[in-house]
Specification:
Helix content: 40-55%
Protein name: Type-4 uracil-DNA glycosylase
Largest sheet: 5 strands, mixed
CATH architecture: 3-Layer(aba) Sandwich
Number of domains: 1
Strand content: 5-15%
Distance between the termini: 27 Å
Number of helices: 9
CATH topology: Uracil-DNA Glycosylase, subunit E
Bound molecules: uracil
Number of strands: 7
Family: Belongs to the uracil-DNA glycosylase (UDG) superfamily. Type 4 (UDGa) family.
CATH class: Alpha Beta
């Protein structure tokens, strides 16, 4: 594994993994995307957040969750009492998948094949970081982590066990889901529920 390759130095192993991922051609998404958006955060983080894939702004910045969904994420974790600099934040898929419409790049959902191809990277991130608790933000992250289709409504709000011995996992909605809700009252209610999910998951870390 990446960890063995550098004699157990996890920081070095992580940097090597990130550099290797920068040249990833495991699926076709690397061609139109600007760059690989790898995970970020301390390699000894106890809490890991997994999103879907980088969006337009993340693709340009090379960092996860810095665009509109990232702003919701930042506000929600802060309200849940979580320090972003202390947690590891990554995505199930590491290249932006989009459709070009004029000058705009419109997000497309990653498919099963892309999630599968990219699991190579997230599995190695998880093996290095070994978080006590992993939070799946939305169905794509949950699908990647559990290797099956997951219904968020049925599985959110309780501690789950990752199938590969990777510790505890919690499933909640993706922050983009909140941005898409047209009704303001519904959005406020769903946002509060999201914050509560994050608070409960974070409280599981010793
Ligand atoms: N949405 C995600 O799932 N991840 C990001 O990094 C940005 C938006």
């Amino acid at each position: 594994t990446a960890r063995d390759a550098v004699g157990g130095n996890i920081e070095l192993a992580w940097a090597a993994l990130r550099d290797e991922a920068a040249g990833c051609t495991r699926c076709p998404l690397y061609k139109p995307a600007t760059q690989t958006v790898f995970g970020e955060g301390p390699v000894d983080a106890q809490l890991m957040f997994v999103g879907e894939q980088p969006g337009d702004q993340e693709d340009l910045a090379g960092r996860p969750f810095v665009g509109p969904a990232g702003q919701v994420f930042d506000r929600a974790i802060a309200e849940a009492g979580i320090d972003r600099t202390a947690v590891y934040v990554t995505n199930a898929v590491k290249h932006f998948k989009f459709e070009q419409r004029g000058k705009r790049r419109i997000h497309s959902k990653p498919g099963a094949g892309e999630i599968e191809a990219c699991r190579w990277w997230i599995d190695q991130e998880r093996m290095l970081v070994k978080p006590a608790v992993t939070v799946a933000l939305g169905a794509t992250a949950a699908r990647s982590l559990f290797g099956r289709v997951v219904t968020i409504g049925r599985e959110r709000g309780r501690a789950l066990e990752l199938p590969d011995g990777g510790g505890e996992a919690w499933i909640t909605v993706h922050p983009s889901f909140l941005l898409r809700l047209p009704d303001e009252a519904a959005r406020a209610a769903e946002y509060a529920r999201f914050v509560e999910d994050l608070r409960v998951a974070a409280a599981r870390v010793g």
